[in-house]
Amino acid sequence: PPPATPPPPAAPRHGVAVCNAPGRNATATAEHTLTLLLAAARGVGDTHTDLRRGIWRGDYYDYDTCGIEIDGTTIGLIGFGAIGSRVAKILHAMGAHILVHDPYARPEALAGLAEQVPLDALLARSRIVSLHARVTPETTGMIGPAQLAAMPHGSVLINCARGALLDYDAVCDALESGQLAGAGFDVFPEEPVPAHSRLLTAPGVVLTPHIAGGSQQVAHKAAAIVAGDVGRYLRGEPLHHQANA
Fold first, then answer.
1. Is the pTM of this model over 0.85?
2. Residue (of 125, 188, 183) closest to 156 by Cα position
3. Where are the domains positioned within the chain?
4. Terminus of the chain with fewer CB atoms < 10 Å: N or C?
């Protein structure tokens, strides 16, 4: 016999409208991405740690360790949604050349701002790569040993999206070999980060505890978005952010 039709989800079955607050933390996450990107590109993590230990290392000024500027650098963004597009605008204003890999990005949104390219071209051309993709079966583990090896030697990798996008063991290998000069992460495959994680001892890493989407403004934005739909519901008006039918 044919399979039984599954019952509808509980909320619509009981006449309950479910709303969300899209975009509430897009600006906060974009700005935090830039924070980690700049810190990783200029070696802030290691220099900060050394100074806290009372170590003053003049060799951080050497050519091979002093880091890179954003102006004139090619930066690849994997994902061009609410967060990735904001990151692109900031980096473009700083003089970077922006590459984007996102099959859903609208050409008019990219015009004059970024160049849409295949993933392999983005990795080969970008000195800095930042992840902004959703986790799907296609994107899970999308950056692994082969992708890291395809990046220019001494590149920088940033992830403020989701830990599942990235093979972190491969990242640690790349950091220890020098293939990656730096990295900045706000998300991890296991949270909290376990005490034995290689990320805690790998060179050139800047870490934050999944706080990119948190700011004082985010709290106000979320409250305003939710309150707006509550008011529309009570007045019998169409809801702006209804997630179910």
1. yes
2. 183
3. 26-52+65-214, 215-245
4. N
